[in-house]
Design goal:
alpha+beta, Alpha-Beta Plaits, 3 helices, 40% helix, 36% strand
Length: 91
């Protein structure tokens, strides 16, 4: 199992926009991974856990259009973003 964890603080001024975009993107992204889960804390911290069955699935899908849209949305609407692939920070 290969995993990606994205953590970030949702910009308070962009919170409603973030929720709207994430609802649309979530359905697109789910078709390319084994598991997709989002958790939002009461302090506007989001945790996005994405699991893939195999390393090849991660390599083939994590940089496709849908995942790039997801990562771009997080980068534009959040702060303090950390992306970890199998526990290693992705630069």
């Amino acid at each position: 199992m290969e995993s990606v964890l994205i953590t970030a603080n949702i910009d308070v001024n962009k919170r409603s926009e973030f929720y709207q975009v994430m609802e649309s993107l979530k359905n697109l992204v789910k078709g390319y991974c084994n598991d997709f889960e989002t958790i939002i804390s009461d302090k506007n911290r989001i945790y996005i856990q994405i699991n893939f069955d195999k390393k090849e699935d991660l390599e083939n899908n994590f940089n496709n259009k849908e995942f790039n849209m997801l990562k771009g949305t997080v980068r534009s609407l959040c702060k303090n973003i950390v992306i970890k692939i199998n526990g290693v920070i992705d630069k």
